[in-house]
Design brief:
By secondary structure, the protein is an alpha+beta fold. It has one domain: Cathepsin D, subunit A, domain 1 (Beta Barrel), CATH 2.40.70. A six-stranded mixed β-barrel has the order 3-4-9-5-8-7. Strands 1-11-10 form a three-stranded antiparallel β-sheet, with no helix packed on it. The protein is globular and about 40 Å long.
Length: 164
């Protein structure tokens, strides 16, 4: 009986230790190879159609991922003719166009394929002092459980299993 209890305790300890150690797709370490925090904003490294990394603002209030028109042009991402008004704290209904990208990836493995994004002129955002090339929005984040870990200066993105 004591051997059984000891074996069960070792198994529970091993399982708990494995759960406590989570891997993060996007580590927020300052430097070129990692993302950073700037002006109380979370800036992530994003890859569009495999190209990058580009600095993208994590925007939990945005419904859609947005790409600067200049970056879309560089990557030869073709916008559709469908327009959308962008309304926010300082955007006041400025227009953008939808575009389909093959993939958006953050960090090493948080990837969403065939995603419609909004191409948008981000000059006002750049003028305000943000050197980002886009925003990661809820359409991307909805594929993951996201944890902003301020203590360890990182964002953890864990893929949500598909609901069949």
């Amino acid at each position: 009986m004591i051997r059984s209890l000891l074996a069960a305790a070792i198994f529970i300890t091993a399982a708990t230790t494995g759960v406590a150690q989570t891997s993060c797709s996007a580590n927020l370490a300052a430097g070129v190879s990692g993302a950073t925090t700037n002006r109380n904003q979370v800036i992530l490294e994003a890859y569009i159609n495999g190209a990058g990394p580009y600095a993208f603002l994590l925007d939990t209030g945005s419904q859609i991922t947005m790409i600067d028109e200049a970056l879309a042009s560089e990557l030869k991402v073709q916008p559709t003719t469908t327009q959308a008004a962008v309304v926010g704290v300082s955007l006041h209904g400025k227009g953008g166009k939808y575009a389909l990208v093959d993939s958006v990836r953050v960090g090493e493995s948080a990837k969403v394929e065939s995603l419609y994004v909004l191409t948008f002129n981000m000059n006002d955002i750049h003028t305000a002092g943000y050197s980002v090339r886009g925003l990661i929005g809820e359409d991307f984040l909805s594929h993951f459980d996201a944890t902003i870990d301020n203590t360890h200066n990182r964002v953890c993105l864990t893929e949500i299993p598909s609901q069949s």
